[in-house]
Amino acid sequence: xxxxxxxxxxxxxxxxxxxxxxxxxxxxxxxxxxxxxxxxxxxxxxxxxxxxxxxxxxxxxxxxxxxxxxxxxxxxxxxxxxxxxxxxxxxxxxxxxxxxxxxxxxxxxxxxxxxxxxxxxxxxxxxxxxxxxxxxxxxxxxxxxxxx
Amino acid sequence: xxxxxxxxxxxxxxxxxxxxxxxxxxxxxxxxxxxxxxxxxxxxxxxxxxxxxxxxxxxxxxxxxxxxxxxxxxxxxxxxxxxxxxxxxxxxxxxxxxxxxxxxxxxxxxxxxxxxxxxxxxxxxxxxxxxxxxxxxxxxxxxxxxxxxxxxxxxxxxxxxxxxxxxxxxxxxxxxxxxxxxxxxxxxxxxxxxxxxxxxxxxxxxxxxxx
Lengths: 148, 211
Hints:
By secondary structure, chain A is mainly α. Chain A has two domains: 49 residues, no CATH class; 82 residues, no CATH class. In chain A, 79% of the residues lie in helices and 0% in strands. Chain A is elongated, with a radius of gyration of 32 Å. Chain B has two domains: 119 residues, Rna Polymerase Sigma Factor, Chain: A (Orthogonal Bundle), CATH 1.10.1740; 84 residues, Winged helix-like DNA-binding domain superfamily/Winged helix DNA-binding domain (Arc Repressor Mutant, subunit A), CATH 1.10.10.10. In chain B, 66% of the residues lie in helices and 0% in strands. Chain B has ten helices and no strands. In chain B, helix 3 crosses helix 4, helix 6 packs across helix 9 and helix 7 runs antiparallel to helix 10. The interface between A and B is large, with 44 and 60 residues.
């Protein structure tokens, strides 16, 4: 088997990632190539160390409440959508009432009326979005205070 | 709003082990079909099945327990809202992994924008007194790898995924996955050479070429 190709397969051979045919070809090459043999042996040691790498388990009991937390946040997501939608509708309605006189005035050009309504809608959507983001980020920041 | 209709069928969280028992006996595809129809009890089975994998995947990227917990849960929430776009003939985890990875990358990007110093992460590892120094060096080495190399190392060694599963999760060809692992292992072999008593600096050619 080609030397360079074998070198690329040695790592996979070490961690059992090769099929039988490829593994046998690598083994054949290893028997006749001291350089690759040494690499194989070193990678076997590396593999042993890598096999012992693991993350610490999270605090006790976290899995018991994991789904409940996801569920609650799912519900809260819908709440946020409805809250935002309601706030936008109410604010837009209030804003419309404030400029209703201008909108109904036949002497004012249509383009100006459209501009006023678009400006108002934009300001309201941005306002609601910023408030929501602010509240959301504030909630996120609280997590930072929890001891890791 | 796509997920709104999906959320309206069941009002309260399913009591653990009650509604889930029926769903658990189904195949993943059948469970996911139910999730698509808005069954939260079915989604509970999926979340319970993948929560540890999701948490530890996120932990590998963000190095922080609370952020990993938060992001993994965000991932499930986002996946629920997007479940209508999911093809149930395909396995769930690779699709979910894409969502989760993007959330982790967003988090890391935000950290960088805020100039927050990322945690070194060694304290999230299981260590013993005798191997702490070597594992710390190895973890540092893993985090010095390119993102693609780090990703395959995390999936291979911390999630115990097969090469095929890594290819499916990352959307990369099998050959690319093997190549990334090859370069990553070469780098980590160099990192460990001092601790494992290797005779020479090994893996010289091409070591820095992989990405």
